[in-house]
Design goal:
Blueprint (H helix, E strand, L loop, with lengths): L1 H13 L20 H6 L3 H12 L3 E6 L2 E6 L2 H10 L11 H6 L13 H14 L2 H6 L1 H20 L3 E3 H18 L15 H17 L19 H29 L11 H7 L11 H13 L2 H17 L1 H14 L15 H13 L9 E2 L4 E3 L2 E3 L4 E4 L1 H5 L44 H18 E4 L23 E6 L12 H6 L22 H7 L3 E3 L2 E3 L10
Parallel strand pairs: 2-7
Antiparallel strand pairs: 1-2, 3-9, 4-7, 5-6, 8-9, 10-11
Length: 565
Amino acid sequence: MLFLIKWFLGFLLGGDGGGKQLPPCPPGIPMIGNLVGMLMNRPTTKWIVRVMNDMKTDIACFRFGRVHVIAITSDEIAREVVKEKDSVFADRPDSYSAEYISCGYKGVVFDEYGERQMKMKKVMTSELMSTKALDLLRDVRNLESDNLLAYVLNLYEKGGLVNVRDIVCTHTHSVKMRLLFGRKHFKETTKDGSLGPMEKEHFDAIFKALDCFFSFYIADYYSLFRGWNVQGEEVVLREAVDIIAKYNKMIIDEKIGLWRKNCDANKNVPKDWLDILFTLKDDKGKPLLTPEEITHLSIDLDVVGIDNAVNVIEWTLAEMLNQREILEQAVEEIDRVVGKDRLVQESDVPKLNYVKACIRETLRLHPTNPFLVPHMARQDTTLAGYFVPKGSHILVSRPGIGRNPKTWDEPLIYKPERHLTGDEVMLTEPDMRLVSFGTGRRGCVGTKLGTYMIVTLLGRLLQGFDWTLPPKTGKVELVESKENLFMAKPLLACVEPRLDPNIGSGNNNFNSAVGEHMFDKVLTPSDVGKLNRLVIPKQHAENYFPLEDNQTGTVLDFEDRTGKM
């Protein structure tokens, strides 16, 4: 009873800005504020932007219980948050979804700003996302880009109809698996290089967790509801994160066992991010990270950004298919910069300005997520001249900023040329006129990797194939899903190869990507005794089958381009 009285008095005494002028607030109910609107209008992220448009304001204060949630749709105010007052808004708010995804705020993305978070971020920045680290694993990314072309060509041979979302999901998950774990599949490989049952379950769980993260939970504003599953989404989130953790832990435990067993022999170059993390030492020569910290980092690396490439490529191709002159101009640039005797490489990215302009325009008009990861005010402060109480949650709206008519001419029209204003087009946007990657103290550390992956992926798809709409399809229906910012229906398109399969030389050419299957069947343990001699083409042996020496001899551990062992 005393708890309820104290809780009730807290609402009466602490529910407003203490007489200071808060940002414009939509009408609410005494004590609970806009909580009913939050619960009745799902997804809440879209409702918030609609309310702000109706109010004709670029900043608004929504009160959910005692918590002030400040939403922003202006680039100018966003700069104030992530640049001018970056230190004031460096913390993350308590959130059921963030707590569960990060195993109790123990990763880089959701941890409170402090020594532990800075340590983990430094590891990611200097050891995993540095130029040296990205160069080390470039062949891994190229391998999966090659595999993507083979996968699409296989679909062409089966009829030519491609589910764009499906192929990009397959590619993105495969790249993340290779980078993080050094393998494409958890256990069993697939004959055509697609995701197997385990990979599909893992990938679906990541997307469910991301959708749940941007939901608004009543438990975030009334802690007494924690664990009640009032909205039904808490169980979905828990199940999704448990699936991700189960698969990650399976490989991490396996890696730990191998490293402990062969600690003296593991002097070769690391093959993946886990290898790098295991080799890090502090100034006393002891492991820098505990197995628990490595697990937390692996979930951050697994979850964050994986949806960006899927959304960007699908929306970009959809807009191009509706405006073929844009598609043709992008292909013309690729042919001019790269030519037709080799495939697009990461080194070509700086020169593919029109392709990047198309991607920037997609990030502006069709952002992947509704908001940046929320910030929280560490002290009383102001934004745009309005009072912002300590503890307020700050939401920077990606679509709100990207579609703001005060910033952009004809904001709902897809026009890549609006970004061709300098010598080199960058996907980042320092002035926050569009939100491509997070910025500031809590900004995205994977900006360079994300740029390489998205531009190279789109470049190879446009270079390798002619894209057309299916017969009897006039235009792509450019409609957002009701639940998130993805297309309501997966994009289906017809493809036809546009390059000679025998072009070029070396490893990264169209022929090697789609034509060289090293084995006709998946090798099994029973086959080993039948192999008196195994002949591997020199270029494959040197680049994709590095030999690992240990005290007992040479270990052969390899996959061909289609994942066959």
